Amino acid sequence: MSEYQTFLTERDQINVLIAKGYTIHGVSENLSGAFLEFKHTSRNETEILHITTADARKYFSNLLVNHIS
User: Which of 2, 7, 19, 27 has a CA-to-CA distance to 33 between 20 and 30 Å?
Assistant: First the structure.
């Protein structure tokens, strides 16, 4: 899979979780990528995504910054 296709897949995974009512609760980064912890706003459910592309990391960073400001 190309880098761009991987980015699109990761972006879509993030968008699906947000559309289902999850919010980003935590971010843990290391040399193999970023691990995003999502928590559902009304249920006690947690999902973790492993983000490997730089573009997807920029994407979720922008979501965080835009949500805060």
Answer: 19
Locate 17 and state its tokens: 């979780």
38 neighbors 22 (Cβ within 8 angstroms): yes
- Which helix (H) or strand (E) segment holds residue 38: the answer is strand 33-40
Farthest CA pair distance, the chain: 36
Q: Which pTM value belongs to this model?
A: 0.91
**Across all residues in the chain, what is the average pLDDT?**
94
Mean pLDDT of 34-43: 95
Tokens of 4: 């761009």
d(CA 56, CA 66): 15
